[in-house]
Amino acid sequence: MTTAPTPRPWLALTGFIAAAFAAGAIGSWATFPAVRTWFPALVKPAWNPPGWLFGPVWTTLYVLMGVAVWRVWRTRAPAAPALVKIYFVQLAFNALWSVLFFGLQQPAWALADIVLLWSLLVWLQAGFGRADRLAAALWLPYVLWVGFAAALNLAIVRLN
After folding, report:
1. How many domains are there within the chain?
2. Which of 22, 23, 43, 103 could be cross-linked to 91 through a Cys-Cys bond (beta carbons 3.0 to 4.6 Å apart)?
3. What is the pLDDT of residues 36-78, one digit of tens each?
4. CA 19 to CA 11: how far, in whole Å?
């Protein structure tokens, strides 16, 4: 697909990636105390990943997310403006999950949020696939990770 002309495409790319990291920063702010106090006391499934894994995974995902939406934004696809808007909506649900799960210590509420988030991600996956195949490929790890996180969230709700 041809790309939309823009004088500063790299500035836009930086903005999309920064928005993802901003959502992560909100989540980190909400999680900081509870990660060290409340969360370790929860019963977790045996397949719960080690804590050190989350930082590198999310850092990678934020970059991939930003590049994916940037590629879609640069296309002339009719759906691109709506896809970009939904990108920002899903970032709000992403940040809200951490606030609900860790900040408010409400895993069941967070589960409802993550189901909505994952639904948006799947919808975006399909839209990205129609607009730009590489964008869809870059987006897929995020969809898979949030699917895994939803299963983990469900397990924690059931176990606690």
Report:
1. 1
2. 23
3. 899 999 999 999 999 999 999 999 999 999 999 999 999 989 9
4. 12
